[in-house]
Structures are given as structure tokens and as C-alpha cells.
UniProtKB/TrEMBL annotation:
It comes from Genlisea aurea. One of its GO terms (biological process) is starch metabolic process. Transmembrane segments: none annotated. Residues 205-276 form the Glycosyl hydrolase family 13 catalytic domain. This is Glycosyl hydrolase family 13 catalytic domain-containing protein. GO terms for cellular component: cytoplasm.
């Protein structure tokens, strides 16, 4: 699949003549976009390859073992720790490339089983200018809060083939017009509880269909440690919220929606991120500018959150790959982008 290069950008003035009053500024903005697209095409092989960061960064498994890569340019040293190596910081020391990407390879065990068992805790420990920092991997696929604890724990999520949910139904055809039911899984129960993906699938989706909607927009999917943020203070961008169930439970929900002919939209948050330093991206490698603008420009005082630096190459890779991940891994049909 080829993502075509941008055109001249001039037809917008035919569609909306009032925009001609801002032509100089809009042409400048569009020229900057074209330069960036050309750079991505030149150095990354196009958007098709650039948006597949999850195939290289984070945890990837091959026939021989698990490779873990993490972009943390501010770190002086890094090591992978977790239940699998009894949290020994000397067991799996990582090496750094010229772009600030750290890497370590863990060969499979002698019996062929993965070196990191599915469902176990993992973290990256970094020596930084502000001291030792233990962080949940930025590309973690699942994160869970242990009862009685406040910070979340990063989980290595890679179930055996026979335990993974297999989608059964194709995506519905794109509707001529959308009738969207906006929803929040946790708040969708008639009882005073945090609802589950499974209950939403079985109890709520049929009601949405019966009411005549053809699309469901789901909020608060990306993991957020502060529940009252309504899903807008994301801590783990590639992980579906564990409050409602497992990643496979979410897949089952989306598959059921497709069976009912419902398009599934995700309320995605790429405009800002949680201010948390223990389980989020803030101060990830000990610096305040790893994923975000430094100083006041990188902090939204009204939202109490960090603002991404879209000028950072790896931030673009992270967010574009994140959007693609939700489309490909979970079969979401589209997005409502928060904070645009």
C-alpha cells in the first residue's frame, strides 16, 4: 500500500474561497508539511515504513528470541529488568546506537520458550543526569495497577497462539453518513461499577445497534492511571486500559461490533500526555524533552499535562505508529482526535 505524496494544496481555496485571506500562512504551513513528507520518504522509505515503528521498537519476538529497543537519548546507560531476571540490573545490559536507541537481545530458553514469560512485569532502568530512573517501556502493550499500589506496572503481553483472540468478522463498509454513539466503557453499566469490555460487548452494543446508530466512538481506551481524567491523561499509548479487561477482551468487543455492522471509532489522544513520571512518558529518560517540548512550552497549565514535540523525528514515529497499531492490531475503523 502506497501513501501518495501531497499535491499542490491549492484546491482548498476553490472549496472554501474565504481561506484566500490566509493564503500566505496556509501555503507556508503546507510547504513545511511537504518538506517533512519528502524527508520521511527519503530517509525512512515513506509513511508505509515509518508508521511501522512497533515492528522494531519495544518488544519484538523472532524465531530465536526477544529483542527490546527503546529510544532514550538522555540516558547514560540502560538495562532491562523484570520478573524474568529477578530484577537484576546486571543481567541484561543494553547497548546504544548513534540515535539514542538502546537495544538488548534475549535468546529463547533451551526448551524454546520465551525468555520473558507472558504476563510478567518488565521495566527499563536508566542511569540519567537526574539519577536512576525505572520506567515502563514506552511501547508497552499492556499495563496493570496492582491492588493497593498507585503506579502501574508494565506487562510483557505476548500470549501463546492458541490463547490469542482471532477476528471472525470483516470491517463493515464505510457508511454514507455516520450516526455516532459516543461511549465510555467504564461508565456504561447500569450498576455503580466500572464496566468491562465483555459486558459492553454483550449488553451495550446490541442496544446501540437497536437505537439505529451505525458507529460507536469509544473513549478512554489508551491506558491512563488517573481514572478521573476520563482517558485524557494517557500514560501508556499502546496499551488498552486494563480496568475493563485484557487486550483480547477489547478485540472481542470490536469484532462483535463489526458483526453487528457497527463502525468502531477510537477517541485517541495525541495532543498531550500524562504528567506522571512513574508510569508515563514524562521525564522518561531523566530529561523533560525526550518526547515533549522543554520548559513552559511543553506543559499545558490548564490540562496539567505534557505537550508533544512534533518536531522530534522519533515522536512522529511513535505517534504515527501508535495510530497504525490501533487500526491493525485491534481493527479500529478510524479516530476522533482529541485536542486538535
Amino acid at each position: 500500500r502506497i501513501v501518495p505524496p501531497p499535491g499542490s494544496g491549492q484546491r482548498i481555496y476553490e472549496i472554501d474561497p474565504l481561506l484566500r485571506n490566509y493564503r500566505d500562512h496556509l501555503d507556508y504551513r503546507f510547504s513545511q508539511y511537504r518538506k517533512l513528507r519528502e524527508a520521511i520518504d527519503t530517509f525512512e522509505g515513506g509513511l508505509e515504513a515509518f508508521s511501522r515503528g512497533f515492528e522494531k521498537l519495544g518488544f519484538t519476538r523472532s524465531e530465536t528470541g526477544i529483542t527490546y529497543r527503546e529510544w532514550a537519548p538522555g540516558a547514560k546507560s540502560a538495562t532491562l529488568i523484570g520478573d524474568f531476571n529477578t530484577w537484576n540490573p546486571n543481567a541484561n545490559v543494553m547497548t546504544r546506537d548513534e540515535f539514542g536507541v538502546w537495544e538488548v537481545f534475549l535468546p529463547h530458553n533451551a526448551d524454546g520458550s520465551p525468555a520473558i514469560p507472558h504476563g510478567t512485569n518488565v521495566k527499563i532502568r536508566m542511569d540519567t543526569s537526574s539519577g536512576t530512573k525505572d520506567s515502563i517501556p514506552a511501547w508497552i502493550k499492556f499495563s496493570v495497577q496492582v491492588p493497593g499500589e498507585i503506579p502501574y506496572n508494565g506487562i510483557y503481553y505476548d500470549p501463546p497462539e492458541d490463547e490469542r483472540y482471532v477476528f471472525k468478522f470483516p470491517r463493515p463498509k464505510k457508511p454514507k453518513s455516520l450516526r455516532i454513539y459516543e461511549s465510555h466503557v467504564g461508565m456504561s453499566s447500569t450498576k455503580p461499577v466500572i464496566n468491562t469490555y465483555a459486558n459492553f460487548r454483550d449488553e451495550v452494543l446490541p442496544r446501540i445497534k437497536e437505537l439505529g446508530y451505525n458507529a460507536v466512538q469509544i473513549m478512554a481506551i489508551q491506558e491512563h492511571s488517573y481514572y478521573a481524567s476520563f482517558g485524557y491523561h494517557v500514560t501508556n499509548f499502546f496499551a488498552p486500559s486494563s480496568r475493563f479487561g485484557t487486550p483480547d477482551d477489547l478485540k472481542s468487543l470490536i469484532d462483535k461490533a463489526h458483526e453487528l455492522g457497527l463502525v468502531v471509532l477510537m477517541d485517541i489522544v495525541h495532543s498531550h500526555a500524562s504528567n506522571n513520571t512513574l508510569d508515563g512518558l514524562n521525564m522518561f529518560d531523566g530529561t523533560d524533552n525526550c518526547y515533549f517540548h522543554t520548559g513552559p512550552r511543553g506543559y499545558h497549565w490548564m490540562w496539567d499535562s505534557r505537550l508533544f514535540n512534533y518536531g522530534q523525528w522519533e515522536v512522529l514515529r511513535f505517534l504515527l505508529s501508535n495510530a497504525r497499531w490501533w487500526l491493525e492490531e485491534y481493527k479500529f475503523d478510524g479516530f476522533r482526535f482529541d485536542g486538535v
